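# step 3/5: fold
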Amino acid sequence: MKNLRSLIIILLFVTIPLVSNAERVKVRLFSNNNIEALYVSFDLGLYDLYAGDSSLLESSLGEGMSVELLPSVAGVKVSVNNYEYGVFKEVTLRAVDTACILCLNPKGVKQRTYEGNLVVSAFDAKNLRIINDVDFETYLAGVVQSEIYGQQSDIFRIQATISRTWALRNMGKHKADGFNFCDYVHCQAYQNRCIRPDIMLGTMQSSGETIVDADGKLIDTPFHSNSGGETANSEDVWRTALPYLRSVQDTFSFRMRQSDWTKVIPKDKWLNYFAKTHKLNIQDPEVRETLLGFQQPHRQAKILGVQLTRVRTDFKLKSTFFSVSTDSKTGDVVLNGHGYGHGVGLSQEGTIRMVSLGISYDSIIRHYYTGASIHRDEQVSERYVEHFVTEITKIIEEDKANPGKVKSKKDDWLGKLFRVRDRMDREEEFDESKQEMESDWKIEW
């Protein structure tokens, strides 16, 4: 029995990294804020309101209605259209339709919109815990929108692939907290639902794709804004050497938004930092000369034994890839830096440049993740994905043909797309010559 149990564990270890799809995930929203009150309205679709497993309302909530949620010692105080229903330990707004959009207005925090379900409980008498229970690929599209900019679908396809890989490797990151991920950079940014059909298109094109090493196991897929022209070895930042996170030359990151930066620091502050914090003898001429004339033609991990990651944190620098000079007039220390972020793995702005040059998305991934390759899950139906790609491409083309057209919420691209998905799921054929109404669907069971 012990050998059988060991064999099962080994098989799970071998096969889990190749699973490239998940059904749903739970993401804690506003994880970097204290939420004293949450006001919810409904942009699309219908929602049912539950306290635990019990429904609080006979009818569903929709456009024109609002819910107020407040923390208390006993739980969450719930009001609908200003009518108070009571205090409950946990409250859920559960989507009735496939295409449903919630508008969240926390007190003191910028409004956001999300799809899927919302689960709200109270941390204490003053703070709410808000969790989005959402389809995994929908979550990924929101991550892509939050994490990268651009116009070409391959940019979003690449970001979706690395974000999917990271998420599948880290499904249990917040297991002890009762959810999968937070919405901050501690996990991956997830600041809104995906509102751009071109970003959803790139995400769909990446369906079933993950990044694996030579043994077929999911890799760590760190990324950053701009490498400054050279990426960093993983051990220079996190002290763990990984074969696929090697430093590579990256001229594609030159002349982009975050390519270069400068920071001026008073000389005494700079020198005293190394003396007091790192116990260096700044009276030693060689030490002083190095600190005031440090150069990095190529990335280094340390300056006089001090980790550059620590220097970056303490001085709030954009990167560790900088050189030092002294202003001849003021005597101040001038840091001339390159790039933005930790520098390990994929450079997002380098990716944007490479895509604009016509370099294929798989070549870009191999450039930044040494020896890695893209794994495509054969369980993902190509016909299903291609149909979505075709439909959303039509939506994008319609938008381009009608610039500035004011749309109703019913015409939101999400609603259009998932009405197609609903029909596919139920094997229904829609007669495009007729008005889109439930009675116009021809059932093919």
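# step 4/5: annotate
DSSP finds twelve helices and 24 strands in the chain.
# step 5/5: archive (pending)
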